Amino acid sequence: MTTAAPPQAEITPILDRAAGGGRISDEEALALLRSDDLVALGEAAAAARARTSDDDEVTFIVDRNVNYTNFCITDCDFCAFYRLPRDPEGYVLSKKVIFQKIEETLDLGGTALLLQGGHHPGLQIEWYEDLFSDIKSRYPIHLHALSPSEILHIAHFSKLSLEETMERLRAAGHDSVPGGGAEILVDRVREVIAPKKTKSDEWLEVMRVAHRAGMSTTATMMYGTVETLQERIEHLRRLRDLQDEHQGFRAFVCWSYQSGGGSRRGDDHQHATAADYLRMLTVSRLYLDNFEHFQSSWVTQGLRIGQLALAFGCDDMGSIMIEENVVRAAGTAFRLDTERMVSAIEATGRRAVQRDTLYRTVRRF
C-alpha cells in the first residue's frame, strides 16, 4: 500500500461502530483498508462474527467441485484452466464420469455437487436440463451449479431470456448459484482482465433474478489484479446494495489472484501477502453488515492462514475440496479430507460442524 495509513484516532470509532453492527461508508471502509493495525481490524471483525454465529463452532461442507468442461471462448487473462474450442486438451465430461464422481462424493458423506465449467459454444440449455434432471432422478444431492456468467452464456446461445433460462434450469434440478466470475464488479477492471465476460451489471442481474426466484446464492471477490482499493470497495458496495434488496446471498468468500495462471499481464498484477488477505477479509466482514456467513479461503491461502482467518471474521471453512481444478491449474493445490478438516478446526479451539449448502447442520464432531 503506497498511501499512508490513517491515524488510529480516525480508525477506532469506525471499528467500534462496525463491530456493533453499524453500517460504515465507502470512505470509512477505504480508511480501514489502508490501516496498518491488523490486530484491531481482526478484533472488530471477530466481534461482528459473534453477532451472527456461534464463536465456539466452525462449519464446513463435504462436496465436490466438478468442472464439466474446460472449453471456453471467454479467454480470461487470469485463467490457466480453460482451453479454446478444438484444443486437444479440451474436454466435456460424460454423464457416466459425472455420475461416478457423484457416487464417490456421496460415499464420502458429501451433500452437494459444485458444478461449473467454461463457456462452451456448443452446449445449449437442453444439454443442462438433460444432465440436471438425470442427476436428480438418481441421486439425493444438492446442485450448486453454474456461475452467473455461465447462465448468461447459456441464455445467449439458447436464444432465451435470463428469466426463462433460470426457470428452466431450476425446474430441471438447479438448486443454487455459486458466486464465481465476480472477480471485481467494476467494468474498468473487467475490461482489462476479462473483456469477453459478463459486465458488472449483468453478473448482478443474474443474482437478482435468482434471488427473486427464491434461489440462494453466494458472493465472491478475486482481488489483486489491476484494481484499486477504491474499486474493491465499489465491489463490496454493489454486493451490499443487492443484499439489501432480497437477502439472497448466504455467504461471502474472497481470495487473492493466483499468479501461477500464466497471465499475459503478469507484471500488472499485484503481489498479495497473507496480511493483505486478512485485511481484505476483515474489511469485507465489517462492510458487508447484511451477510451472515464468511468463508475462509484456505484453498488459495494455505491451511495455516485459513485457520487464522477464523479469528478475523470467518465462521466457515468452506469445502474439503474432494476435487478442484481451476485454482490447481494456477499452481495452488491445497486439499483436505474430513478428518484433517475437523482436526484443523479443533486446533483453533473450536468445534467442527459439517453443514450442507444452505448451512443446515449435517453432523457435529
Can you offer a commentary on this structure?
Helix content is 44%, strand content 13%. With 365 residues, it is of the alpha/beta class. The protein has a single domain (26-364), classed as TIM Barrel. The strands form three sheets. It has a four-stranded mixed beta sheet with strand order 8-1-9-10. Strands 2-3-4 form a three-stranded parallel beta sheet, with helices on one face. Helix 2 (26-33) packs antiparallel against helix 11 (274-287). Mean pLDDT is 90; it is low at 262-266 and 325-332.
Give keywords.
single chain; about 375 residues; alpha/beta; TIM Barrel; four-stranded mixed β-sheet; three-stranded parallel β-sheet; 15 helices; 10 strands
Question: What is this structure, in a nutshell?
Answer:
The chain has 365 residues and is α/β, with parallel strands linked by helices.
Annotated CATH topology: TIM Barrel
Task: Determine the N-to-C terminus distance.
Answer: 41 Å
Mean pLDDT, rounded to whole units? 90
Specify the CATH architecture.
Alpha-Beta Barrel
Which consecutive residue ranges, at least 5 long each, have pLDDT under 50?
262-266, 325-332
Element string (H = helix, E = strand): HHHEEHEHEHHHHEHEHEHHEHHEE
Number of domain units: 1
Q: Fraction of residues in helices?
A: 40-55%
Q: State the name of the first-level CATH class.
A: Alpha Beta
Strand content: 5-15%
Largest sheet: 4 strands, mixed
Any idea what the radius of gyration is? 20 Å
Strand order of the largest sheet: 8-1-9-10
Going by CATH, the homologous superfamily would be Aldolase class I
Q: What is the count of helical runs? A: 15
Which structural class is indicated by helix and strand composition? Answer: alpha/beta
Q: What coarse outline follows from CA principal-axis ratios? A: globular
Could you tell me the number of beta strands?
Answer: 10
